[in-house]
Amino acid sequence: MFIDKGQLLSSLTQLYDTQITQAVSLYSHPGMGKSRLLQEFSQERTVLYFKAPALPFEEIFSLFQQLCIRRLGTSYENTKKFADIFKLLSKDSVREPVVLILDDFVNWTAANRRFPTMLSSLIQRADPKSRLFVLLCKPASLYEKESPREAASFLLEPFSFFEMRRQYPQMKFEEQILLYSITGGVPAYLQYFPADCCVREKLRELFFTADGIFYRLVEARTREYYSASSVMRAILSAIGTETKKLQEICDYTNLTPSAAGSLLSSLASRNLVSRIVPVTENQGSRRALYLISDGIFRFWYTCVLPYLSEIEVGEGAQVFEKQIVPLLEDYTIRVFPDICRDFLELEEKAGRTPFPMQRIGRWWGQHPTKKRTEYISIAAYSRDNIMLGACFWTEDWLDVDALYDLQKHASLFPDEEQWYYLFSKSDFVSGFETISGNHVHVFSLEKMCRMADEYLSSTI
C-alpha cells in the first residue's frame, strides 16, 4: 500500500498538470521512500530517469547522452552538450509531456558549479509550448539552504506515527508505538517489519543476533560515513536516549565545544542527530539540545552497544529476554510526546488549531524568580500565542489537577495568549473541557488516532 506522505504525490501531480516547462526540487535523506514515490509518480507518464554518479562532468554527460539514445532514439547521437539534449527534450515535450528526473543532482553540481544556473536559464528560455517537467532529487541536508530560493520544492520526511499505523491495522496500540519508537517511521526500516509480525520477536532477530540486519547496519554506516568513527561513536553514546546539552557531550567525550559542534553538524547532515531549540527562539539559540534522531541508531546505542560481546558469542537471545524486554515499556513511553507532536502537525494541516502553530516542539528556559530550569515537553508558538502541552502515559483517567500543574507555567509567558493541550494514553474525566474553558483541549490516544485517521482518509 502506498501512502502519500504529506500529499507529496498529489502536489507533484498538480504541478505536472499545469503543462508548463518547470523545475521542481525533491529533498530526501536515504531510506525515506523516494524511489517508491518516483515510481508512483512515473506511472502512465513519459519519464526519463537518470541517476548521476560521482564522476567528472564530461563523464556524467556522456552517460546521460547514452541513456537518451537508448530510451529516446538516434536523434540524440549528435548532441555535444547538455543544452543540446535539453532543447531536444523540450521539443519532444511539445507533442507529449516529458518528465526528466535527475537523481543525485548534487553530483552534477559538484562536477560543474555553473550547472544549476545553466539549467535554470534553459528552463526560462524554453519554448512556451513545451511541457518538460524537470524533477531534481537532492539531499535533505541542503533543504534549508536552497529551498527558499526555489519556486517549488518538497522535503520527503518519515511517516508520522498516524501514517505508519495505517500500514499495521491489526497491531495493538502498544505494539504500534514500540515499532514507531524503534523505526521513527522511516520506510527503509519499516520494510523489515511485516504487517503481521511480532515486534519484539523482530527486534531480537534484527538487533541481537550476530548476523542481524540492524546489528550490523549501525557499525557499517558509521565506518562508511566517518573516518573518525570512534569519536562519532563516543558522541552518539554520550547522547543515548535523552536530549543532551553541548557541554554534557563535551564532558563525556573530552572534546572541545568547537570540535563537538562540528562533529554534531556532520551527524545532523546524515540525519543521525537533531539540534533542537525552544519553540520561542530561533535556530541560532545557544540553548540548543541534541538528540539521536535516527531510531535505529538510538536503540542500538542504548540497548545493543553494552552487550556486543554476548551477541557475538551467540547469547543475544538471553540478553534480549533478561536485559531488554523489561526496559521496552519505559523505552516506548519516551516516544509518546513525539506522537502528540505528530498529532498537532496534522491538526495544523487540518486547520483545527486555535492559532497558526508555526513552530511545534518543546520549550525550556530559566524561571525568572525561582532560578531553575523549567521544561515543557510539548509547545507550539506563533505571534502573540503559545500552546503549552503535557502528555501522560497512564491507565488512570485524568482530572483537572493535571491541568493545574501545566498552568503553573503561565507566568513564563506573560505577553502571549495561552492555550493548553493535554494528551493521555487513557482518557479524561467527564466534562473536563467544559469545566476548564475553551482554551483547554484534551485528547486520549484513541481520540487522536480516530481524528488522524479521519483526516488522512479525507486527503487520499
What would you note in describing this structure?
This is ATP-binding protein. Pfam families: DUF234 (PF03008). InterPro entries: DUF234 (IPR004256), P-loop_NTPase (IPR027417). This protein has 460 residues and is of the alpha/beta class. It has three domains: 152 residues, P-loop containing nucleotide triphosphate hydrolases (Rossmann fold); 162 residues, Orthogonal Bundle (Arc Repressor Mutant, subunit A), CATH 1.10.10.10; 123 residues, Trna Endonuclease, Chain: A, domain 1 (3-Layer(aba) Sandwich). 46% of the residues lie in helices and 17% in strands. The strands form three sheets. The protein has a five-stranded parallel β-sheet with strand order 2-3-4-1-5, with helices on both faces. A five-stranded mixed β-sheet has the order 8-9-10-11-12, with helices on both faces. Strands 6-7 form a two-stranded antiparallel ribbon. Helix 9 crosses helix 16, helix 13 packs across helix 14 and helix 20 runs parallel beside helix 23. The longest helix is centred in the first third of the chain and has 16 residues. The two termini are 12 Å apart. The mean pLDDT is 91.
